[in-house]
């Protein structure tokens, strides 16, 4: 066998080994790429009534208790999700949000639930998709910071993600006819607002459509972790003097509306 024949034989063997190795690797590489693209959506609802519907519609694969929180991992509308009832208020929401990111690898956060409507155009059951969120009870105005500004943080409002806002907007189809849909700022504080005067102050100061008790905490955690988020709320009351009674009668209907938007949104992800 000539040297040329030996070299060409060797090249043939090397090429074959290379091709076989390549063929074997290809499906794994594709699977890895698919996995990388599959986003895990962390969904936070403050109260039982705000997660009930999503929980009953999802396919739960694993239930994990961490401290006092229970996380449901699984699928809803073909989308991998982790659902948690955070409890009411900003610390509860922030803790749940950070656990979703750190322990359950959530890539995206959605906060769903009910709220007090403070914009004059808003009626009971109407949906508000957050464009941004702000803490209405953050107050260092005595040191010349604007209301809601966390001192030395480079933003006063936590911007929601545009793509999630668009998906949410698309998800508002098939809501009951009486429901109107708005996009706008959402104001958050550790207070159940039941005062027309306070509600007006929040509306005028922050241009907010609704007031609730978790959204900006989720927004702030998303901001700190540099991940996208959006808040979807349905008005369960008007944040006026009768808010508690009105909410009692309307909370289930409102929770149904926000859950509907979340489910529709997941279909488009
Ligand atoms: N969630 C629902 N209604 C609310 C209100 N009036 N104030 C704060 N959070 C709320």
Automatic annotation (TrEMBL):
GO terms for cellular component: cytosol. One of its GO terms (biological process) is L-methionine salvage from S-adenosylmethionine. Keywords: Amino-acid biosynthesis, Hydrolase, Methionine biosynthesis. It is an enzyme of class 3 (hydrolase). InterPro entries: MTA_SAH_Nsdase, Nucleoside_phosphorylase_d, Nucleoside_phosphorylase_sf. GO terms for molecular function: adenosylhomocysteine nucleosidase activity; methylthioadenosine nucleosidase activity. It comes from the Bacteria. SUPFAM superfamilies: Purine and uridine phosphorylases. Its EC number is 3.2.2.9. Residues 41-267 form the Nucleoside phosphorylase domain. Pathway: Amino-acid biosynthesis; L-methionine biosynthesis via salvage pathway; S-methyl-5-thio-alpha-D-ribose 1-phosphate from S-methyl-5'-thioadenosine (hydrolase route): step 1/2. PANTHER family: 5'-METHYLTHIOADENOSINE/S-ADENOSYLHOMOCYSTEINE NUCLEOSIDASE (PTHR46832), 5'-METHYLTHIOADENOSINE_S-ADENOSYLHOMOCYSTEINE NUCLEOSIDASE (PTHR46832:SF1). This is adenosylhomocysteine nucleosidase. It comes from Thalassobacillus cyri.
